[in-house]
Write a structure and sequence with these properties.
The chain is 42% helix and 12% strand. By secondary structure, the protein is of the alpha+beta class. It has one domain. The longest helix is centred in the C-terminal third of the chain and has 17 residues. The protein is globular. The model has no long low-confidence stretch (mean pLDDT 93).
Length: 84
């Protein structure tokens, strides 16, 4: 029997983006880029991920970076979503 890790993963998105970044990544990404948010690049600059870290450690770092982005989001455009 195979067991799947059911750890919750998080993504960053904007309040106006109608697409789910987990299930509709391409339209989500295109919308995000068209609006000039560049959320993936922004998250990539803030998250200190590494191939040296485990998947769980990288997931935790991505969540930390998302929380930091939202903390300093003076435009109030970002939100954190879970892969529920």
């Amino acid at each position: 029997m195979n067991y799947v890790n059911m750890a919750t993963k998080y993504a960053i998105t904007t309040f106006d983006n109608p697409y789910n970044p987990f299930e509709q990544f391409v339209p989500w990404f295109l919308y995000d880029e068209e609006k000039g948010y560049h959320s993936c690049a922004y998250l990539g600059r803030i998250a200190r991920t590494s191939e040296q870290l485990s998947e769980e450690e990288n997931d935790s770092e991505v969540e930390r970076a998302i929380d930091e982005i939202i903390k300093y989001d003076f435009r109030n455009i970002y939100k954190k979503v879970a892969n529920a």
